[in-house]
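Subject: for your reference before the review

Hello V.,

The reviewers asked for a structural picture of the protein, and I figured it would be easier to keep everything in one thread rather than splitting it across files. Below is the amino acid sequence we used in the manuscript, unchanged from the supplementary table.
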Amino acid sequence: MMFVGVMLALGPLAWVWLRTRRATPLRRLHALTLLTLFLTFDLVMFGAFTRLTDSGLGCPDWPGCYGHASPIGAHAPIEAAQAAMPTGPVTHGKAWVEMVHRYLATSVGVLILVLAVVAWIGWAAWKARGRKASTRPTSPWWPTLTLLWVCLQGAFGALTVTMKLFPAIVTLHLVGGLVLLALLCVQVLRSAQLDGGTAPVAISPGLRWLLGLSFALLALQIFLGGWVSTNYAVLACTDFPRCQSSWWPPMNFRQGFELWRNLGLTGAGEPITFSALTAIHYVHRLMAFVVLSLLGVLAWRLNRVAALRGPSRWLAALTGLQLATGLSNVVLDWPLVAAILHTGGAGALVVVMTWAVAASRTRNATLASLAPERPVSRFSA
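And here is what came back from the structure prediction:
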């Protein structure tokens, strides 16, 4: 597994080296971080595809597949499992989907390890020169934290398999992937700010507060969405705006939000009721009205700050995408493309919101009239 991950990571590393071989170390690190962010986003999308195609147990052990590094070596046990249950969790196709997801996750882990090593080398060299370099390197603590987080994320990936898609673990694994996107996004912004000599743009305390509140509620909504997906509660309501032809259908909140239980069962081991699935779905839907409205207001407010019009427009577009894909999941019987795009939209919203937070700061009322707003740092390599 590690060998395959290293081999896959060599491609992006070689591409960055060839593209930035004449650039400064800071710009080279920025390019690698940006590419790692992009590949991590792809990994989140492929993770959604793995979950939504019921491939999470395509190889029911970890880290290999029936003790082998690929489904090729595990052909016989997979064939036996598929013959016993042709539409079950273990088939040749699902095994490959699951293992490709693991290969990609390992390669992203290798890239993050390289980021941490390079950051520490640059930091040590800067200190050895007496901190006299023209450009201060990025702090190595961000990539170190990211490396620790990706190790934790790998542990949750293992538990997802060994605990047989335990809803709380699968939801935390999904949320952990989005936290990883946020950590990488912060590093992209910080390296761009150092390279360009720019500082976060000053915004009013009210707008900064709105930004923080919106981000907090978005995080809650993403957790609720993950809980819907991992409990397969999307189709508990198949009409809109009402649910089961009612504005308040029968719901069992106690069962629905009992967090520590097996998939499809209550904590007591009894089958979960349909009213519990309805509660899971409907809470996410009601929260969506609040969060999407708040994100629309935030996009409008950010658009009034010239330096933040980029994230503002992305925020508005992604809010519309989430509304469209969320409705599609309900009224079109949970199509795969819409479901994957809904997860991707959530990941993109996390990136954009992190971008807006990291690219801004609260304006000091005393100095506001003396210091003009500085432009937001660029987000590209």
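For the response letter, the relevant points are probably these. Residues 366-378 have pLDDT under 50 and may be disordered. The first helix runs from residue 2 to 19.

Happy to draft the paragraph if you're swamped.

O.
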